[in-house]
């Protein structure tokens, strides 16, 4: 068994319109796109992530390398997680959980009491992350239609 190594990283609000963050989101797309047919890919364009109603977070190593990201759309009624991703080499170090907590704090700071998300059924690691964080399955929300390839989840803050 390998020894556990502490990973030094920070999470801050940043614009996703940076080359290293665009590469993260492109890697997410490269992973997800072949898993689902076009009609079941509910990706959010990077330009939409730059709007004022989105809190977008980037996790970086102590050396400034972007290793994870995610956003929360801050609607009047609730938050919705968008584009959560951690580079595969960095998974298992608590980075995804830390980004998730950070985004939930952003939603709370905006007075929101619920956060929703949509994820694909062929992403068991993501589903496990969300379940461990207290998210539960729910009905389709905010204009989504029921989709057998999607899992819709909710967490009360």
TrEMBL record:
UniProt KW keywords: Acyltransferase, Transferase
Keyword Acyltransferase tagged: yes
Domain N-acetyltransferase: 9-157
Alphabetized Gene3D superfamilies for the sequence: 3.40.630.30
UniProt xrefs under CDD domains: NAT_SF
Source organism of the structure: Amantichitinum ursilacus
EC number: 2.3.1.-
Single GO MF descriptor: acyltransferase activity, transferring groups other than amino-acyl groups
Protein name listed in UniProt: Putative N-acetyltransferase YsnE
């Amino acid at each position: 068994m390998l020894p556990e190594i502490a990973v030094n990283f920070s999470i801050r609000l940043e614009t996703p319109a940076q080359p290293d963050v665009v590469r993260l989101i492109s890697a997410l797309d490269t992973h997800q796109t072949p898993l689902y047919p076009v009609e079941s890919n509910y990706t959010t364009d990077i330009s939409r992530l730059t709007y004022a109603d989105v809190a977008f977070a980037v996790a970086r190593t102590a050396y400034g390398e972007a290793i994870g990201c995610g956003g929360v759309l801050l609607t009047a009624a609730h938050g919705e997680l968008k584009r959560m991703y951690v580079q595969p080499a960095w998974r298992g170090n608590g980075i995804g959980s830390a980004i998730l907590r950070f985004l939930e704090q952003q939603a709370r700071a905006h007075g929101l009491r619920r956060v929703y998300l949509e994820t694909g059924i062929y992403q068991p690691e993501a589903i496990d992350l969300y379940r461990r964080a207290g998210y539960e399955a729910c009905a389709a929300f905010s204009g989504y239609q029921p989709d057998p390839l999607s899992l819709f989840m909710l967490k009360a803050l």
